[in-house]
Write a structure and sequence with these properties.
This protein is an alpha+beta fold and 362 residues long. It is built from ten helices and 19 strands.
Length: 362
């Protein structure tokens, strides 16, 4: 199975070619897949380097290492990304519960290092694949209180979605996003939010070809099926209510309400995971408390909300993000990158309502 996935990553998703330089960043629990990906890259004539983060080292960084050791991206990472053509990031750790009891400032810096690396890869047009699947471990499911079998079934369904259907739907939304910058969300649960998008909408169909590279659409995720665009960080006005749960730093954020004024969060309400969320806002840097990116789900096989990144792929849902958006070509920088999905709002792009009754109307 790992060989099939590795071949899909190298041959289909990233289109690796002879003499390219491939960097794979993995965890110890996903090292077997990393090695399979490396071997497939070598078969295509590429040179490969693998970096490994272990849970033992992560635990030490969160508990014992000085703050200075985790506040910045290692300089050799930046050097490595400049010299790479392809970056593959396998998500982890095996047990995200390691973050829950950690100092939130350190946890944000450690997780923010990957976000900053993605931003650097974007600016250098390095074809980058973020593999969520490796983070869907049995222990992670247990930590977040969900069924691992349900999680993997949803993952496998999403992996087999019709790509041409995703592209067609994404292009329809992209046309509207290019034509209108004003977005309005409303719902009976209390959402009434307006904001403006900026920059270029980017369709993630799981493949990065040369046309994508020319258009700086160089970040894909596995599973895929979304279209994202940066948000003007000064534009959000109103309230948004998220009823779906969201896994974050080993905790579950549930029934989250955010109030915005001139783009900035002015009030929060959280039923579950309040300490984790509030600590993250307090310890974050930069645009930690501003709405900075918007995502529409376009994967027709995605259907079951589980509080995981797969939720972002569900048609009829939208995901709003706080913090960094450099990896999407935006202007907001932060060590925080928090996303949360909702599906109970009427969503309008300019004068056109494209989501009603939890369904896309296109």
């Amino acid at each position: 199975m790992t060989t099939v996935v590795a071949r899909q990553i190298i041959r289909d998703a990233l289109r690796v070619r002879d003499q390219e330089r491939v960097w794979i960043h993995t965890w110890n629990h996903s090292l077997d897949l990393a090695q399979e990906i490396a071997q497939q890259a070598q078969l295509h004539g590429a040179t490969v380097s693998i970096s490994v983060m272990t849970e033992t080292l992560l635990s030490h960084a969160l508990k014992k290492a000085p703050q200075e050791a985790v506040t910045t991206v290692p300089t050799h990472w930046y050097s490595g990304i400049v010299k790479s053509n392809v970056l593959v990031v396998l998500e982890g750790p095996n047990d995200p519960g390691i973050f829950k009891l950690a100092d939130k400032g350190k946890a944000l810096h450690v997780t923010g290092q990957i976000t900053q690396l993605l931003g650097k890869a974007f600016s250098n047009r390095v074809r980058t694949l973020l593999v969520h699947t490796t983070g869907f471990t049995e222990q992670a499911a247990k930590t977040y209180g969900i069924s691992h079998s349900n999680l993997m079934q949803e993952n496998n369904r999403c992996m087999t979605a019709n790509q041409s259907a995703m592209i067609d739907l994404g292009r329809q939304i992209k046309t509207l996003l290019r034509r209108h910058r004003e977005i309005h969300l409303s719902s009976s649960e209390g959402t009434n939010l307006r904001f403006r998008t900026q920059g270029t909408p980017r369709i993630d169909d799981g493949i990065i070809d040369q046309t994508d590279v020319q258009n700086k659409n160089v970040l894909a995720q596995l599973p895929a099926g979304s279209i994202s665009i940066p948000i003007d960080a000064s534009s959000a006005e109103g309230t948004v209510v998220f009823n779906w749960p969201r896994a974050y730093l080993g905790d579950t954020i549930q029934n989250l309400r955010l109030d915005f004024k001139k783009g900035k969060i002015t009030a929060t309400r959280v039923l579950k995971g309040e300490k984790t969320f509030e600590h993250a806002l307090r310890e974050g840097t930069g645009d930690k408390d501003r709405l900075t990116h918007l995502t529409f789900g376009i994967n027709s096989n995605a259907s079951t909300p589980l509080g995981q990144p797969l939720d972002e792929l569900i048609p009829g849902s939208i995901t709003l993000g706080l913090g960094d958006n450099i990896f999407l070509g935006g202007r907001s920088r932060s060590n925080l990158n928090y996303s949360h999905t909702l599906n109970d709002a009427i969503v309008s792009i300019g004068p056109t309502a494209i989501i009603m009754d939890k369904k896309l109307t296109l």
